């Protein structure tokens, strides 16, 4: 199926509205409250937070693509939470490095807003710059540096990004685990990992985590009025911080190892929202 977002004349918010309508029809859930994008290491949280009401293949929903990354699942799930709310789990993340532009990258977030969600939880696997973070350490995102030279905002819409990563939601997360550290996430375009010099640049400008997602999605979330909680799993020390070279297999393995622990943590956080 051709992706409607490939047509530059199309209004991406219209496609998001259509996607939300299909999700409502297929799930029978008229309004979702919380949306989640689960990155490397976080996927098991979907099984822990509540009862899955519907699991919809991403390619049956306008604007979504199947994930190209091994280990990433491509379904959109509607989950009934024990507190009566509904969560939408976006299992089909399009990364900026796939080269389809920014619209598909933020389509999940816009669709979440169109389903009625008020909160967006963005998770990812990232490289850690702080040596105190052993591989497998979850970190709250306190702010970001968007190093992609792109924005999801089109036209003269000057969105305020102060407190983009909600302090209120970070404080709630810390009531579940007071040892949760926080840091600034820097999004690179990828898909190559950073060079050690780039990691040193990231460190010098105030970043603590480097990765290839989240910042563009967070901007779109804020522009759509969503309150954002960001969580990184530091799967590895960033290039040059650790003496060993990076491998995607090892990043996935670190995610798998940490998955039960951090997924349970996320489920506990969601129960408090
Ligand atoms: N860099 C960028 N993205 C990542 C990394 C990294 O070191 N680890 C996991 N995702």
CATH class: Alpha Beta
Spatial ordering of strands, largest sheet:
5-8-7-6-9
Number of helices: 7
Structural class: alpha/beta
Biggest sheet, in brief?
Answer: 5 strands, mixed, barrel
**Named CATH topology:** Rossmann fold
Which percent bin holds the helix content? Answer: 25-40%
Task: Give an overview of the whole structure.
- The chain is an alpha/beta fold and 273 residues long.
- The chain has a single domain, classed as Rossmann fold (3-Layer(aba) Sandwich), CATH 3.40.50.1580.
- The chain has helices at residues 12-27, 45-48, 102-114, 167-176, 196-204, 215-223, 248-271; strands at residues 34-37, 51-57, 75-80, 86-90, 119-128, 137-146, 181-187, 209-211, 227-237.
- The chain has a 5-stranded mixed β-barrel, surrounded by 4 helices.
- Helix 3 (102-114) packs across helix 6 (215-223) and helix 4 crosses helix 7 (248-271).
- The protein starts with 11 loop residues before the first helix and ends with a helix.
- The mean pLDDT is 93.
- It binds hypoxanthine (HPA).
- The site of hypoxanthine (HPA) has 13 residues, from strand 5, strand 8 and strand 9.
Briefly say what this structure is.
The chain has 273 residues and is α/β, with parallel strands linked by helices. The chain has helices at residues 12-27, 45-48, 102-114, 167-176, 196-204, 215-223, 248-271, and strands at residues 34-37, 51-57, 75-80, 86-90, 119-128, 137-146, 181-187, 209-211, 227-237. It contains seven helices and nine strands; from the N terminus they run αβαβββαββαβαβαβα.
